[in-house]
Amino acid sequence: MPDMESAPAAPATIAGLDEKILTERREAVSRTRRDVLFDVDGLTVSYADVPALKNVSLEIYKNFVTAFIGPSGCGKSTFIRCFNRMNDLIPTASVEGKILYHGTDLYGHEVDSVEVRKRIGMVFQKPNPFPKSIYDNVAFGPRILGWKKELDDRVERALRNAALWDEVKNRLKSSAYGLSGGQQQRLCIARCLAVEPDVLLMDEPASALDPISTTAIEDLMHTLKRDYTIVIVTHNMQQAARVADMTAFFSVEVDEEQDRRTGILVEYDETPTIFTNPGDKRTEDYVTGRFG
Amino acid sequence: MSTIPAPLGQRPRGDKVRGTIFYVLLLISVAVGFIVLFTLIVDVVQKGIGYIDPLFFTEPNNPTNPQEAGAKPAILGTIYLMVLLLMFVVPIGVGTAIYLEEYADRERWYNRLLELNIQNLAAVPSIVYGILGLAFLVRGLGLGRVLLAGALILTLLVLPTVIVASREAIRSVPDSIRQGAYALGATQWQVVRRQVLPAAIPGIATGSILALARAIGETAPLLLVGALTYVTVDPSLLGSFTALPVQIYQWIARPQEEFRYLAAAGIMVLLAILLTMNAFAIWLRNRYQRRW
Amino acid sequence: MAAQDTTAGAQPIRLRAKGRRWGEDVVKGLLALCALVSVATTIGIIIALLEPSIEFFREVSIVDFFSGERWAPLFEPASFGVRPLLAGTFAVTFWACVVALPLGLGAAVYLSEYARPRVRNTLKPALEVLAGIPTVVFGFFALTFFTPLLQDFGIGVGIFNVLSAGLVMGVMLIPTVASISEDAMAAVPRELRDGAFGLGASKLQVATRIVIPAAVSGIVASYVLAISRAVGETMIVLIAAGGIAQLTADPREPAQTMTAFIGATGLGDVPTGSLEYKTIFAVGLSLFVITFFMNIISIRLVRKYREIYE
């Protein structure tokens, strides 16, 4: 790539990216053992038989934070929703291909989507606490699982792990809607944690929040990844650079004739590589801000 | 046309006159309804107030002596009908609403037919429901002209109204709540029972009470299903019965003038019951309605 | 706490439900059953009306039914021409429309185009109160207040007459017309009005030349619904219009509508299976068919106006 060679470390001039962070990340990632948790193979998602996301294959590693980035409409939200079969809720959606989780295909015949969701949790873009008390929000998951004993302990543990306990311990019975946006999102995280999943999927978890709350959520991700595997969708590249160990870049393939836009996986690698030394020109264009 | 422009502040006189006449006509349109309402109430109270006494509430009808006639069986009949109605129409109506909103696939022809069917039933004349009751319950099943038959027919009559109100209430629960619950591994029924329904209850309750109020005032179906006019005993489930609107009708149909005053008294009681129910429904809505 | 194994493809985690979730199927089945109640109701109505009617029309020819001008089912010799009933229904409906259609539209225009928001928010629910008054009360009003009033004004109406019942019924239907028409007018986008005002049009012109034409399908829908309700209304006519089935164009005379006939006959003790008994169903079927078609039209019209602006 002629451009790359002539420009001295040009991609590092992406606004806000700290060389130091990237270096730390590079070292951390190379030290860590990679255990495959999800093996995605040839995944294609279509709505009403029109493909929205085509032929994605990658591996998600345990206890890593993996980020999906890309321009709007590239299918990253659609993709992340495949991991907990939330796309099942859309009547026109159909999925081909496989996602192997602990060796079992999530889309296999005998797999029950309800069971899947108990192990793979999700946090949404706009915080969506239930119209109940803080306690009942966190307790909802355990209750439907039938974990009626030690409910108080579970709730406290979940809230602590979501870094929310100190702020709400004295008002557990008050309405969740009384919390600020950032607190509500942490409440949603606590809600997920209460069912003790393996994985946390986060679809643009901080995009509706202010910068301070965003930082809090990002810090939380660093802590949580010790015990959980985290996959996040973000449109904020700096955020991906800050939190993610692995980054997947998606883009849109335009079919002029049929007037179709389909999402595809362009490149998937360690985060520092994606941002400083991407292999694909499309990736480079995106991360340097030339498009998207 | 004229080359001298009209002074800016004045519209042509003809225009103004027409505008004012139009406005007055509109005001009259609105006023007529209220004038009639007002006159009606005053007239009824004037005629009936003399006959409202404790006797009215404790004595049964007396076809020969209006002075000693009361509306006890009729009032009791109306109350019993109300209770039976509540027991029948709310579960079936809410159940149908849940099915249509949460379970039914809109694309299927039979579900669309179902919706069309409900819309149609809402506009069928009430006396046709009476005919239905006459054919199937009274003569067909051989139930006879009993309270239960009346309650069943009124149930069918107001079922569409309850379904529509319940659907509105269920629809107004934001989808983000459902998504959050599904993502935690809840089954469809768990989502409905623990999140959607509780949130929709205020709307459902308000709608049901308003539907009930409408049913209480219905006379035509009950005429056919046999609210007999000479009932002196208190109503029982499988016994002959009467209801307030029917009793009022019977009194109106008598030639003697005193029965007119009795009818007015009955109307006062009926209107009072309706007013209470409507006020209660509105209070419920204002107190418990959630603003999402 | 989190995952049990550390290598992919090791021990498969069971992602199958413990048993097929039959509880969910049961719930869905029960709910569908609830929905079937409404289906059963319609089927019931159709059967209830058709069966006796078919038997009726074996004995009375359809031609006689629809062309005969005398309705006297209980007389000797009986006559089954339904025209007087149709005429009675038509007459009462006509007078109801004379009141409800213009006044309802006027009220809607006022509420939509002229009234301040606070006024509208008080008046609209107040108008609904009118709609909530039971029809038997309106019947009482027509018979005991309005008819004498008309007589006092020198209009020589009989004790039972079409005019009184029709006019009072019309007032009862004003909220129906007003409510749906006002919704249709509210759906007309502001930009349309602003454009006209910007050209110097007066309120009257905007209301009559812009808003009403734009909302016309909703307005017509409200008219059709009001007519349908007038046709199907029983108590007001039963009480105030009388029980004499006669063909007359004079609204000061009494007349019997289809609904009043059904009500009056159903009250009595007509032996099951007799021809008189079956007249209830034949007339009921005619009534049902008429209102059914009007409702279909109304539903279509409402869908049309919703589509245009929403």
What's the helix and strand layout?
The complex is a heterotrimer of chains A (292), B (292) and C (310).
Chain A: H1 2-6, H2 19-31, E1 36-47, E2 50-61, E3 65-69, H3 76-80, E4 93-101, E5 104-105, H4 113-119, E6 120-123, H5 134-145, H6 151-161, H7 165-168, H8 181-193, E7 199-203, H9 211-224, E8 229-233, H10 237-243, E9 246-255, E10 260-270, H11 271-276, H12 281-287
Parallel strand pairs in A: 2-10, 3-8, 3-9, 6-7, 7-8
Antiparallel strand pairs in A: 1-2, 1-4, 4-5, 9-10
Chain B: H1 13-48, H2 54-58, H3 72-103, H4 109-121, H5 126-140, H6 147-171, H7 175-183, H8 188-216, H9 220-225, H10 244-253, H11 257-288
Helix pairs in contact in B: 1-11, 3-6, 3-8, 3-10, 5-6, 6-8, 7-8, 8-11, 10-11
Chain C: H1 22-59, H2 62-67, E1 71-72, E2 79-80, H3 83-114, H4 117-132, H5 135-152, H6 162-186, H7 190-198, H8 203-214, H9 216-232, H10 235-240, H11 258-267, H12 275-309
Antiparallel strand pairs in C: 1-2
Features:
A: 292 residues; Rossmann fold; ten-stranded mixed beta sheet; 12 helices; 36% helix; disordered N terminus; C: 310 residues; MetI-like fold; 2 strands; flat
